Amino acid sequence: MNWVIDIVQILALGVFIYSLLLFAFYVFIGVISIGETNKYMHQNEVTDYRVIASSVHAPSVTIIAPAYNEGLTIIDNVRSLLSIYYYNLEVIIVNDGSKDDSLQQLIDTYQLEKTEFFIPHQIPTKPVKGVYKSRSSVFRKLVVIDKENGGKADALNVGINMASNDYVICIDVDCILEQDAILKMVKPFMEGVSERVIASGGVIRIANSSVVQNGSLVKVRLPKEYLPRMQTLEYIRAFLLGRMAWSRLNGLLLISGAFGAFDKEIVIACGGYSSKTVGEDMELVVRMRRYMEERKEPYKVTYIPDPLCWTEAPTSYKVLGRQRNRWIRGTYETLKLHRKMFFNPRYGLLGMLSYPYWFFFEMMGPIIEFFGFMTFVIMVFAGFVDWEIFLPLLAVIVSFNYLYSVFAIYMEVKTYNQYKRKTDVTKLLLTSLSEPFNFHPFIVWSSMKGFLNVVRKRHTWGDMVREGFEKTIS
Amino acid sequence: MLRPDTLYRTAWAFVCLILILLLLIYWSLYKRKRVFFQQKSFRDGFEEWLSELMMEEEEDEGSAELPAIPEKFTKHFKNPVKRQFAVDILMDLKKSVSGSLGDNIINLYLQLGFKDESVRKLRSRKWYEQVKGINELSVMKQEDSYSRIFKFTNDRNIYVRREAQTALFSFSGFGGLRFLNVLTYPMSEWQQLNLIEQLRPLNPEPMPGIPRWLRSDNDTVVLFALKLAEIYQCFEVHDDVAHCLQHKDEKIRNQAVKTLREISNETTAALLCDHYPTESLRNKINILNNLNAIAGDEQLPFLVKELDNENEFLKLGAGRVMINCCSQGLEVLEAKAAEQPVPFGDIYNHLIYEIQR
Questions:
Q1: Which structural domain, as residue segments, surrounds residue B333?
Q2: ipTM above 0.85?
Q3: Which of A116, A161, A400 is the best mutation test for B, with the most CBs of B within 10 A?
Q4: pLDDT tens digits, residue range B192-220?
Q5: Residues in A touching B21 (Cβ below 8 Å)
Q6: Domain for residue B15, yes or no?
Q7: Would you place residue B240 in the very low, low, confident or very high pLDDT band (cuts 50, 70, 90)?
Q8: Residue A57: its chain B contacts at CB < 8 A?
Q9: CA–CA separation, A280 vs B181, rounded Å?
Q10: DSSP codes of every residue in B195-260
Q11: On the CB side of B15, how many CA atoms lie within 13 Å of its CA?
Q12: Residues B34, A422 contacting (CB under 8 angstroms)
């Protein structure tokens, strides 16, 4: 039996080293994000964004928002997009074969008429049934495309084919953008001198329980429900710390599909969004980076820490589970498609650091945790657990988890301070206490179901049930 | 390393760090709230005093001396945070008024000794302090700082040199462009747009430096000069701009096409058509977009050939120029649509719809 013990010890050592590396990465991310966030805040002190809002010389931007059965909220959402403060703007709504009356509502409200429109087929897509523009000059920025259902990636590709501007901002139609969101997203593209900025990501924040009026967020509130509140904390950690640090290193692999800006020329050169994966947002960024690396052209993927985009988070375990199931499948599919880059020095930091980080910690993390937990349960029943070591080790892991969460909340308070009341901050801190025992295991479990779907070759998106934002009477 | 006491000590260390962070969180929230209310009370008082002062000054325009500053404010000004707060209020006010009221704000800024602080910031080792100092001196029109700020226009730090370049424009309008003669660092498009927007409200003045800037070793200076030549329609630099079509930088060639449209003469359209085959796809689309304003019947054979290009964007662009600029363009496209409905029928309908709108 000695060999069994040897194997278990080697595995335990492997997991220990893995955990140490993960801790080290978190510390590294935390430290780097402080410097990057400070720099950004100082930059903004003397930046006047209004200058470009009304400038005819500002870069032209197209917002693309795919919509599928969004009849409940589509009118407010489009109104919100049309009210954004930017001169050179076009808003394209792609109705992806909705079964509800979304299109008719848009036609009636925005006085749309079907136009003769030639769409150059730069990226192959499902057929377009019609292109609509408004008869009223008030809505001259709006274009609505009606197409056969082909999924989110296909709808975005139609929008990209149709976009007449240099930069495209792809968003979820139900997201609420801040008034200055476009100004802030466009700036990084204009700042790139020695490196071409090919994409820029923005922070997504949770809007559950916040007050929305006429499609605009008028009051930020901490979500009342547990799950959205937990995701608020999760998003703060991911966006304010993780992505900020990766952006500093120019190693960002993911720009959220809910809100991302892209250089249209590079997107088209890369073939647009892929319909073969459920993680089309991550896959596009990885493919664009790979394209630039292979051409040895200097480039950058940037990231804006300002809270610019607000979205509704899942409130039930069922919907949240589906979302995380999809995310892990998207990660797996993207990494598999681009496995050539794994520890490939030809791809520089992308191949030697970003890809391996995502592989070992973002993709393999749930697997290692799940099998670690299973092994632990077996060892408990077999009486192999050394409790004298286990309990202090658990204390280290749990306390480090709390430390990271508290640090993220501290960064939020010091920077954007969206939740100004002490009670809200306290609630957020208390919410973090339950994370290691409730929320995190659920996420791991959902990810494992995602891997199971990969094995079974199930390629579904899973519906996101919207409950709608809290509204005031306007 | 995996000894229980070491692990417990590590956990305790984390717990201590958590406690420190918790203290910092609540301290930050408390401080933020306190500063908000203190500043609010100071702001309300200071703004009230300022508005009274401004109204008095407006009625009594001849008086050069400002009245004494109330003691309650001089006491507050010993606190650097409140001093900065007062400077910020004055800056906001200065940006929104002009004429004698603006001069009074500047006098107050000087009388309160804030200028010394702005100059001190210029000497700071922190870039964001330097930026703030330049910004304050520029808004408060402290033109005697011109030469000091000019040195910063080619500073290593992008934000410092950006603010310094903006300040020069604020001091001397088009005269501020002289920094382009010495600029060795790149100037981002964001900065170029800022400067263009700053020049926009001013009456145009001759820019004799443009030919020199168009031949600068600094590509971003060339790009900026091309934009100036486009906006201010500098016809005299047509040949220099045409020369930029051969530049190695794609962005410069792209901008040169746009500029040529604005300063075009009878040779420009042909020049762009000759240059077209050597260009990237992006610039080909750009050339067709700009030919739409300057092409004529002589370009029809070139455009008919482009209809057969594989790229559908180029087909559409060529069709648009034909319809808008060539007397026989519409007929040629109509015949092409009848002969080959896909895609020319769609292109034809699209362009007719565009014209009707």
A1: 292-357
A2: yes
A3: A116
A4: 999 999 999 899 998 999 999 999 999 99
A5: 403, 406-407, 410
A6: no
A7: very high
A8: 193, 196-197, 227, 231
A9: 47
A10: HHHHHTTSPP---TTHHHHHT-SSHHHHHHHHHHHHHTT-GGGHHHHHHGGG-S-HHHHHHHHHHH
A11: 10
A12: no
Task: Decide which of B222, B246, B263 is a domain's last residue.
Answer: B263
Q: Kindly state whether residues B302 and B247 are assigned to the same domain.
A: no
| Average pLDDT over every residue of B272-289 | 94
Instruction: Say how far apart CA A431 and CA A232 lie, in whole Å.
Output: 10
Query: B67 pLDDT band (50/70/90 cuts)?
Result: low
Across the interface, do B131 and A46 touch by the CB < 8 Å criterion? yes
Chain B nearest-CA distance from A281, in A, is 25
> By the CB < 8 Å criterion, does A116 face chain B?
yes
User: What are the residues whose beta carbons fall under 8 Å from the beta carbon of A34, sequence distance 6 or more?
Assistant: A411
Please list, in sequence order, all residues whose beta carbon lies within 8 angstroms of the beta carbon of residue A69, skipping any fewer than 6 positions away: A98, A99, A100, A102
pLDDT in tens, A16-26: 899 999 999 99
Measured distance CA(B161)–CA(B127) in Å, rounded: 10
Please give the pLDDT value at position B35: 81
* B62 class by beta-carbon count within 10 Å (0-12 exposed, 13-18 middle, 19+ buried): exposed
Residue A473 pLDDT level (bands cut at 50, 70, 90): very low
- Which of B231, B228, B258 shows the shortest CA–CA distance to B242? B258
Query: How far apart are alpha carbons B302 and A54 in whole angstroms?
Result: 37
Q: Is residue B255 part of a domain?
A: yes
Of B21, B24, B190, the CB nearest to A191: B190
What's the whole-number mean pLDDT along residues A279-306? Answer: 95
pLDDT, averaged across chain A? 91
Give the total number of structural domains in chain B. 3
SS3 content of chain B, % helix, strand, coil (to 5): 80, 0, 20
Query: What percent of chain B shows pLDDT beyond 90?
Result: 68
Report in angstroms the alpha-carbon separations of A336 from A231, A256, A333, A342, B320: 27, 19, 5, 10, 44
C-alpha to C-alpha distance for A219 and A413, rounded to whole angstroms: 17
The Cα–Cα gap between A451 and A446 comes to 9
| B186, two tokens | 């790149």
CA–CA gap between residue A125 and residue A241 (Å, rounded): 37
Using CB atoms within 10 Å of the CB of residue A5, give its burial: 0 to 12 exposed, 13 to 18 middle, 19+ buried.
exposed
* Cross-chain residue pair A46–B29, CB shorter than 8 Å: no
Does B185 fall in a domain? no
Contacts of B282 in chain A (CB under 8 A): 265
Spatial contact of B202 and B173, defined as CB atoms under 8 Å apart: yes
- Taking the alpha carbons at both ends of chain A, their separation in whole angstroms is 74
User: Chain centroid to CA A270: how far?
Assistant: 20
- The model carries a pTM of 0.89
Q: Residue A325 in contact with residue A453, Cβ under 8 Å?
A: yes
Going from the C-alpha of A423 to that of each of A220, A412, B155, B357, the distances in angstroms are 14, 15, 46, 56
CB-CB contact of B167 with B196 (8 Å): no
> DSSP class of residue A361?
I
Residue A286, pLDDT score: 97
Q: Is the pLDDT of residue A285 over 50?
A: yes
By percentage, how much of chain B surpasses pLDDT 70?
Answer: 96
- Domain-terminating residue out of B100, B118, B141: B141
* Model confidence band, residue A234 (pLDDT cutoffs 50, 70, 90): very high
Q: Report CA dihedral (A42, A44, A47, A51) to the nearest 10 degrees.
A: 180
Min Cα–Cα distance to chain B from A109, Å = 20
> Does residue B322 fall inside a structural domain?
yes
Angle at Cα A428 formed by Cα A425 and Cα A429, nearest 5°?
Answer: 90
Sign of torsion over alpha carbons A449, A454, A458, A461: positive
Structure tokens at A83: 């009210």
Burial class of A372 by CB neighbour count within 10 A (0 to 12, 13 to 18, 19+): middle
